[in-house]
């Protein structure tokens, strides 16, 4: 299994602002020194267009880096010996009733894939969008139609990620349906799955059930799930609230690593923990190598627990 990290935020505030190549190189080198091999570049705040309007800047949005900047990032990655992935903009919403927003969503994925191709990136991953009051089965046709249009034209392998929030599109069932219908592969975020199911991943048995479900519906797990995300997570009645450090939630990340390594599952495991540079990457590395790891299970309580107790 290749270990990676949710990496450099490559957006820019203006066309003339240069990227900080020194910082990018140093991130790649730090990652490599820990034993990590994949840097999933963050394009999540990126907006389409040549300039940011004041309103966009206020929202914290950024511009995409240029193709030549991406080529340079690709060169640096090659020199250091790491691979590149990329996370699509959070503005992607394939379930929007607004046709313009859906076509802009395709624009984001095209922009992402072009940049990843320039950097010789190995995959891109995207969320699907928001339900906006509809049910998943009601937006399925529209999401499949939009995604189908883009999948044939991308130069880089595009993956769909399961959601941690219940108001977003992307239950495990939904992404497996997409994989079955369109042949698109999955980026499985284990922490999202734990949050979406409000505490569903607590034991090795829970992990095995997920692996079995994917294998029975699609085929070999690592063929259909080439990339996974992992972190701790805080959740409530409506799913994900925020990502946490690995040791700071009741998500049993160690059970995930144990089942994956013992089953000989390959693929890329991206650490999305806010503590990824402060111990969590090393912790994952140790666990993958089968070294002794002290697992601290914080008794995080979900909102449902409180409701059940009538507090
Ligand atoms: Zn994720």
From TrEMBL:
GO terms for molecular function: DNA binding; DNA-(apurinic or apyrimidinic site) endonuclease activity; phosphoric diester hydrolase activity; zinc ion binding. GO terms for biological process: base-excision repair. SMART domains: AP2Ec. InterPro entries: AP_endonuc_2 (IPR001719), Xyl_isomerase-like_sf (IPR036237), Xyl_isomerase-like_TIM-brl (IPR013022). Gene3D superfamilies: Divalent-metal-dependent TIM barrel enzymes. Residues 69-282 form the Xylose isomerase-like TIM barrel domain. It comes from the Archaea. This is Xylose isomerase-like TIM barrel domain-containing protein. The lineage of its organism: Archaea, Thermoproteota.
